[in-house]
Amino acid sequence: MDDPLDTDVTIEAPEHIVFRHVVAGPGRRALAHVLDLFVCYTIVVIVSALTILAFLGMSGFAGAFESAVEAGAGVILVVLFAAQWLYSFLWEGITGRSPGKMALDLRVVMVSGRPIGFAASALRNVLRAADVMPVGYLVGVTAMAMNRRFQRLGDLVAGTMVIVAGRASKTAPLVLWPPAAPVELAVLPDVVPLDVEERVAIELFLRRRAALGPAREQELANILMAPLQERFGFRLPNASRTLALLYDRAVNVGRSEGPPSSRAEHGVARRWLPARAPYERRP
Amino acid sequence: MISAVTESAFAERRQLDWNRLDELSRRAAAGGIRALDAEQVVDLAPLYRDACADLARARAARYSAPLVEYLQALTASAHAIVYGSYARTDRARGRRGTRLRRAVEAFPRAVRKRWKPITLAAVLFFGPFLFGMIESMRHPEFALRLVPASMLDPLTEAYAKGFNDGRAVGESTQMAGFYVNNNVGIALRCFAMGIFAGVGSAFFLVDNGLSIGAILGYVASQGAGDNILTFVVGHSSLELGAIVLSGGAGMSLGWSVVAPGDRTRLASLQNAAREVVVIMFGAAVMLLMAAGIEAYWSSSSLSATVKRSIGAVMFVLVMLYMVLVGRGQKGDGGLVEGREKPDADDQAAAAGRRWT
User: Fold this and answer.
1) Which residues contact B200 (CB under 8 A, 6 or more apart)?
2) Interface contact A199-B62, CB threshold 8 A
3) Which chain A residues are within 8 Å of B6, Cβ to Cβ?
4) Cis omega (within 30 of 0) for bond into B154
5) Which of B2, B84, B270 is the closest to A115 by Cβ?
C-alpha cells in the first residue's frame, strides 16, 4: 500500500484487515503531557497537605513535633518519586492511557496496534529522562521529526506509538434529494465510472455543501466538474446538482434496492465499464 | 467486484451486530475483559470477525468513506480487545512457576547474559570510586574540590558521633523517602542516558563513583572511617550493585545502537531493550530494599560487629543470587510482554541482504 500523505499508520491484522491509525503529533501530545503534569502534581500537593496534617495531628498526641515533621517529609519524598516515575508508567501499563491522554483522546499502542504492557510502558516512561534532554523535550521532538510514527526515543525503544483513538460516529449514506427527474435521467450517462479518489472528493463536497454559501458551492462544484465534464460530455446548468446525480449513479448503479436514478433505462446498465482500478498509479 | 446491495440496505442489515460489538468493546476497554460475562466473551470473537468481513466488503463495494471509517474504528477498537499485548498461555508453553518466581529467576539470568557491559560498568564505577577514596584519604582537600564542604561537614559530624543512640523513627522515615526519591531516580536516569551510545550511563557511573569514593575517603580522613564503614556495609552491596547494574543495562542499550550486528539499529535497540528492562526493574527493586535497610537498619544502634557480619552475609547472598539463581531455563521465561514480530523495516532489510 502507498504510504499515506497524512499522519496515518497502516497495520494489518491477522484477519487480513488493514487498519489505519492516526498518529498523534507533538502539539497534541505536549498538551496531554501538560495536563498530566497538572493532574499529577495537584494530587501530590493534596496528598502532601493531608500528610502534613495527619502527622501534625499525631505529633499533637505524642508530643514529638520534630519527629513527625521529618516522617511527613519522608512520605512526601516518596510521593514525589511516585509522581515522577510511577504515574505515567502505571496508567499506561494498566489502561494504555494517562488522564491527560484520555482528555485528548490519545492512546499508547505497540507499533503492531496491540495494547502495550508493563514492560513497554516502563521503557517508554523511563526513557523520558533522555527525551527531555537537554531542555524542553528537545531530543524527543527531534526524534519525533525523524520518523513517520512521531516516536520519541522512549517510543522507539519500547516499540510503541501514540495514536488518536477517536471513534468515528456512523453517518447516514448520502441520498439524492429531490429524486432524479425524468429530464435529468434522460441525459445522465448509463455508467459513471469514478475511481476512489474522485468518488471521495465528490462525497466530501456533497457532505459539505449545505454549510457553504450558494456562490461558493457552485464555484467548488465547477472546479470538481471540469475534468468529469470532459470525460462524460455531460453537464446540467447546475454543477452542484450534476455532481449529486453523478455520485448517486456511480455508487448505486448495478445494486438492487437502489433508488430509481440508479437504474439505467431497461433495468440493466447497457454498457459496463469498470472503474479505473484503485491501485493504478496516476501518471 | 461491486456488491449488489446498496450502502443503506447493507448498513441497516448489519447495524445490530455492529452496535453489539461496539457496546462489548467499550465495556471491555473500560473495565478489562473481566467486565464481560462468559456469554459476551464467547460472542466477541465472531462479532469481531464479522465486522472485519463487513469492513472488507464495504471497501470492496466502494461504500462511502464515513461508513468505511466507522467500520474501521469499530474493528480497530475490538482488535485491541481480542488481541492482548501478549499471549496468556504460560502453561501451554511449559513455563514454570508463578509470575513472581519467573521474575525472581529472570533478573539474574538477564544480568548474566549481559555480563560484559555490566563488568565494564563495575570498572567504570569502582575505578573512580577507589581513586576518589584513596586520593581524599591522602589529601582531604581533593574531596572538597568534588563535593561542597556544606555537604561534607555535616556528614563528617554525623559519622563522628556514631550511631550508638540510634536514630529517631521520624528521621529514619525521612531518610527512607530521600533514598527512594534520590537513589532510584539516579539509577533510572543512569539507565535512560545509556541511549546516547552508552556515554550518558558511563558519565553517571564515573561521576557517582568518584563522589561516593571521595566522601568515604574524606570522612575516613577525619577519623570516622570505622563508623562510616559500619554504616554503609549493610546496604552497599544492594545499593552500589544496583547502580552498576542499571549503568550496565544502559550501556547495553547504547551499544546495541552502535553495533547492531545483523539487525537494523532500531530492531537491535528494541531487542536489547526488552532484555535489559528486566535488569532495570531488578535494580529498582534492589534500591528500594537498600533504602529500607539504609534508613532503618544501618542507622540503628546495633553493634558494629552485628552490622558488619550481616553486611558480609548480604554481599555473599547478592553474589550467589546473581550467579546461581535461574540457571537451566532459557530466556526471560515469558516475563516480558509485548514481544513483537520483527519490525517491517527489519524484514525489508533482511530481504534486501538476502538478494544482494
Assistant:
1) A130, B190, B192, B193, B194, B250, B254
2) yes
3) 173, 252, 255-258, 262
4) no
5) B84
Distance from CA of A241 to the nearest CA of B (A): 18
- Cβ pair B192:A126 closer than 8 A: yes
Q: Does B287 touch chain A (CB under 8 A)?
A: no
Q: Which three cell numbers stand for residue B161?
A: 558521633
B341 in A contact zone (CB under 8 Å): yes
Kindly indicate the confidence band of residue B165, based on its pLDDT and cuts at 50, 70 and 90.
Answer: low
- pTM score, two decimals? 0.75
- pLDDT over threshold 60, residue B330: no
Backbone φ and ψ of A6, nearest 5°: -70, 175
ipTM of the complex: 0.78
Q: What is the mean pLDDT of chain B?
A: 80
* Residue B255 touches partner A, C-beta closer than 8 Å: no
Q: Which residue has the higher pLDDT, A245 or B171?
A: A245
- What pLDDT was estimated at residue A267? 42
SS3 labels along chain B: CCCCECHHHHHHHHHHHHHHHHHHHHHHHHHCHHHCCHHHHHHHHHHHHHHHHHHHHHHHCCCCHHHHHHHHHHHHHHHHHHCCCCCCCCCCCCCCCCHHHHHHHHHHHHHHHCHHHHHHHHHHHHHHHHHHHHHHHHCCHHHHHHCCHHHHHHHHHHHHHCCCCCCCHHHHHHHHHHHHHHHHHHHHHHHHHHHCCCHHHHHHHHHHHHHHHHHHHHHHHHHHHHHHHHHHHHHHHHHHHHHHHHHHHHHHHHHHHHCCCCCCHHHHHHHHHHHHHHHHHHHHHHHHHHHHHHHHHCCCCCCHHHHHHHHHHHHHHHHHHHHHCCCCCCCCCCCCCCCCCCCHHHHHHHHHHHHC
Q: Which of residues 60-89 of A touch B (CB under 8 A)?
A: 64, 66-71, 73-78, 80-81, 84-85
Q: Per the CB < 8 Å rule, is A117 touching B86?
A: yes
pLDDT tens column, B94-104? 455 677 887 88
B82 touches A at CB < 8 Å: no
